[in-house]
Amino acid sequence: MKKLYKKLTPIVLLSMLFGNSLLAQNSGKTEWFDPSRPATTYCNPINIGYNFTTHNHNGIPESRRSSADPVIITYKGEYYLFATNQAGFFWSKDMSDWNFVYGSFQRQPGDDDQCAPAAWVVNDTLFYVGSTWKRDHPIWKTADPKSGRWTRHVDKAMLPTWDPAIFQDDDKKVYMYYGSSGKLPLVGVEVDYKTWLPKGNQADYATLYKATEVEDIQKPYGQIKEAAILDPSAHGWERFGPNNDMEPAPWGNFIEGAWMTKHNGKYYMQYGAPATEFKGYANGVHVGDNPLGPFTYQKHNPMSYKPGGFVIGAGHGNTFADNYGNYWNTGTCKISIKDRFERRIDMFPAGFDKDDVMYSITAYGDFPIVLPTSERDQTRGASSGWMLLSYKKPVTVSSSEECMEVETHRMDHGGKKVYEKFCYGPENLTDENIQTYWSAKTNNPGEWLQMDLGRQMEINALQINYADHKATQFNKAMDIYYQYKIFMSDDAQNWTLVVDKSKNDKDAPHDYVELSKSIKARYIKMENIHNASGLFAISDFRVFGNGLAAKPKSVTSFKVDRNKADSRNAMISWKKQSDAIGYNIYYGIAPDKLYNSIMVYGDNTYDFRGLDKGTKYYFTIEPFNENGIGTKNKIIEVK
């Protein structure tokens, strides 16, 4: 490896680098990283400038970032991302580099801005609406979204739509779908384009227009039709609870997040369940021949599901086609420590198979995923093949925040506020747990972390997941950004500058860095220059590439024991092996439809409670490590 610096303290090294014109400090370009080069991959969670919550949001005083309930649509060849309470939205040319546009509709300092918004291109104009139980909210539209300016299509839409979705069919008719309830179904209705009133005799909606209780508001009236409702007694994954294990559900099993996709003349009514705080939060789908149904539960469900790994959760999002015709499914992933609604956004390759079965591939869905450049088959996902190199690797740091008792808001405790002891040591940097993090004692320039991969490995990309520990920022500000440098070495003494973000001014709390060419190294050091808010703190410092050694052998003693008393449940087990860091369990309704997967680290059992009664399944498993993926086991049938 090329040696540029030898036995220099971090501060001296930093000062020398600032003055080194040979390293193109103004541009941040190095031999291995060029910030102006378009990425070919991305990594979940999506790297956008997640907004900080308003002060005392949900009665919780701590500052934290959050967003959820994403909608990505294409408009004039570019991608637009709308999500909960962002004081605006994001656009991108390539689904990787997202640019923020300020466009808030907040009326009072403590109000939500736009919660779970809907967006759709109607008659070549971009339409937008947020969630509300009221009947006085506008429908906005724009033909120039990058301006951040919107006009009102109607001043007062009478439909009290929470978690709305807009859909325009090929015949130009416009529909609204909405609902969020532990008891009631999602509903849909055709609306008049000019007035946005539901079609039909307005007298039939008189009760709706006067209703004040949610349970009355969300019922079908007039031409409003039931679109989808949960059946947790038959569908294990629709059950409430941290592991679909809270029966009866204290507030019901929640259905929300409506979205409509039309494919080959069929209508796919998408929904999220059973609740955003849980690892099993997923997207399901019902299928019909008409935009208002009736709809039938698709046998392959959930259609997007990610209960394991660094990114956990895939529910309440939308499905869209990119500029090449490939489908993608977006969703909400959880952190849920500072607030049970502390969340992020993910996006996975999706599509429809030869039998028109709607699917989403989340296997290795928090490893780098290849961005589209043409139409392609996504039934096996779009993984880059770069493996996780950093799992459980030792890390040394400049300092560590002391352990402390923290008030948490996990739904794992039944929604009660619980004080837990949290420690912020360096082991949290490589544990693949988004709920834990390391924190330095300060946010000063020169705070650092150093990872030892154990041997020289080939490095292609890194992901830095900031934790904003003890942040003081609330709501949106336009001077939020991170700056840092990353060095690599073979001996921890002679260091090479590989990534220079000392001039960065973009908010990137889940900064994904794809190298322009790979580099071989054993040690990696990150040095802080500027932190957005709070202390210099990172959830996981993730490294991707190839370990340049042997892949793991196939798994042995793989078993799926389906519970005879409750066929929604199964205990999955296998023999743990020393050459694997993790396993991916695949399952589906046919040997050629193993679309769903469960990622497991450091264990040899999984308590699976997401099966449907009366459905026969097929399972297999594969191990993985830094060097690649082992061969899948023979597929087994589980009745």
UniProtKB/TrEMBL annotation:
Q: Does the record's keyword annotation contain Amino-acid biosynthesis?
A: no
Q: What is this protein called?
A: Glycosyl hydrolases family 43
The domain of life is Bacteria
> PANTHER family under this entry?
ENDO-1,4-BETA-XYLANASE, PUTATIVE (AFU_ORTHOLOGUE AFUA_2G04480)-RELATED
Q: Of which family is this protein a member?
A: Belongs to the glycosyl hydrolase 43 family.
GO process terms (BP): xylan catabolic process
Q: Which residues form the Fibronectin type-III domain?
A: 551-639
Asked if Chloroplast is a keyword of the record, the answer is no
The GO terms describing molecular function are:
hydrolase activity, hydrolyzing O-glycosyl compounds
Task: Tell me the classification of the organism that encodes this protein.
Answer: Bacteria, Pseudomonadati, Bacteroidota, Flavobacteriia, Flavobacteriales
- Sorted alphabetically, which Pfam families does this protein's record hold? F5_F8_type_C, fn3, Glyco_hydro_43
**Positions of the F5/8 type C domain:** 429-546
The species this protein belongs to is Flavobacterium nitrogenifigens
- What start and end residues bound the annotated signal peptide? 1-24
Keyword set, alphabetical order:
Carbohydrate metabolism, Glycosidase, Hydrolase, Polysaccharide degradation, Signal, Xylan degradation
- InterPro entries reported for this sequence: FA58C (IPR000421), FN3_dom (IPR003961), FN3_sf (IPR036116), Galactose-bd-like_sf (IPR008979), Glyco_hydro_43 (IPR006710), Glyco_hydro_beta-prop_sf (IPR023296), Glycosyl_Hydrlase_43_Enz (IPR052176), Ig-like_fold (IPR013783)
